[in-house]
Specification:
The chain has about 375 residues and is mainly α. The protein is built from 5 helices and 2 strands. A two-stranded antiparallel sheet has the order 1-2. Strand 1 and strand 2 form a beta hairpin.
Length: about 375
């Protein structure tokens, strides 16, 4: 079994429990030995499942998916912040353009207002002058009428020239004065109309000034909003820098995770190769056990055959008096049989040494796999 623990700091530890390799002490065939062999082969057969479990461990995948989702979220927030910054810059340019247009319009309205005030002052002076002339003409008319009355009164008292001779120039002057008065009245009406139009223009200018003031207040509000937006842009830029730093950190963590996963995959592959080697050695060890059992059986059969041959030969070489066969021939046959038995013993010793070497090699392989995985 293998245990894998992964956290944000990317500390991965692999603990491998070596599979117990049970070897039967006796070479007798039976149900118990076959069961023990099946039980000893079971962990080596599950090595592929162990590799798949370690290669596709859920904590690593979950951490990688979480980091990828965080990176995607930060990228999306960064793009949204950049789009908002662009929109704020565009709105700021529009506000500056509107402020410039309002400033130009306000300067034009101020120029028109000054011209209107100058015209109004000049027209007021003209109206004042006309009123003075009108008063002077009225005073002259009153003086002429008083003169006529005095003339009539004096004509009644004294003998004077005819009244027509006196009135003719006065009437002519009066007619001229009346014509001049009519002209002045026409001028006065024209001035009244001009004054009304100027007043209307002045009211329009006042309304325009009020609109300009309202726009100026709006400009102030827009400037305040612009300042607030600039502060928000600075905050967004700071957040963008922080997000960039976090993104770089996350990318570094992802690279570390990727490197760790690669190392784990290499370790798992090495462990799989070791497991395959152990499985091969187990198979070879089982074959050697089978060969050893076969040699044991052959040795037993050879012993039985030797005993039988010795008995038969001994019986054949007995005479009627039950004398034993010649010792020299029996010793030669016995030496030949002992040589075959010695060869079988050497084969058994070789099999034992090979089994010991296999056990030592398995221990070395497992220790190497543990060092690699840890």
């Amino acid at each position: 079994m293998a245990e894998f623990s992964g956290d944000v700091g990317m500390e991965a530890t692999v603990v491998v429990t070596p599979t117990p390799l049970t070897v039967s002490g006796s070479f007798k065939e039976g149900k118990n030995s076959s069961r023990r062999r099946q039980h000893s082969m079971r962990p080596s057969l599950d090595a592929d499942e162990f590799m798949n479990l370690l290669h596709g461990s859920d904590p690593v995948k979950m951490e990688l998916n979480r980091l990828e989702n965080d990176v995607r979220d930060k990228d999306r927030e960064l793009s949204e912040a950049q789009a908002e910054i662009k929109a704020l810059k565009h709105s700021e340019r529009l506000r500056e353009k509107a402020v410039e247009e309002l400033t130009e319009e306000l300067s034009k309205v101020d120029g028109k207002l000054k011209l209107t005030e100058n015209l109004l002052e000049s027209k007021n002076l003209e109206i004042k002058k006309i009123n003075d002339e009108k008063k002077a003409s009225m005073a002259a008319q009153f003086a002429a009428e008083a003169t006529l009355r005095r003339v009539h009164a004096a004509q009644k008292d004294d003998d004077m020239p005819p009244i027509e001779a006196i009135l003719a120039p006065l009437e002519a002057e009066l007619k001229l004065a009346r014509q001049e008065i009519a002209k002045l009245q026409d001028d006065n009406r024209a001035l009244d109309r001009l004054t009304k139009s100027k007043e209307a223009a002045l009211l329009e200018a006042e309304r325009t000034v009020q609109v300009a003031l309202a726009k100026a207040s709006m400009v102030d509000d827009l400037q305040n909003k612009n300042q607030e937006l600039m502060k928000q842009i600075e905050i967004c830029q700071e957040e963008n820098k922080i997000l960039d730093k976090m993104l770089r950190l996350k990318v570094a963590e992802v690279e570390k995770l990727t490197q760790t996963v690669r190392e784990l995959e290499e370790a798992v592959l090495a462990g799989g190769a070791a497991a395959n080697a152990v499985r091969d050695y187990q198979r070879k060890f089982q074959e050697m056990n089978e060969e050893r059992k076969t040699l044991d059986r052959e040795l037993a059969r050879a012993k039985v055959t030797a005993n039988r041959v010795a008995t038969v030969v001994a019986n054949e070489w007995k005479d009627a008096n039950d004398k034993v066969m010649p010792v020299k021939q029996w010793l030669e046959e016995r030496r030949f049989l002992q040589g075959e038995m010695q060869q079988l013993r050497e084969k058994l010793a070789t099999a034992d040494r090979t089994a010991k070497y296999e056990a030592q090699l398995k221990v070395i392989i497992w220790s190497y796999s543990l060092n690699v995985l840890t």
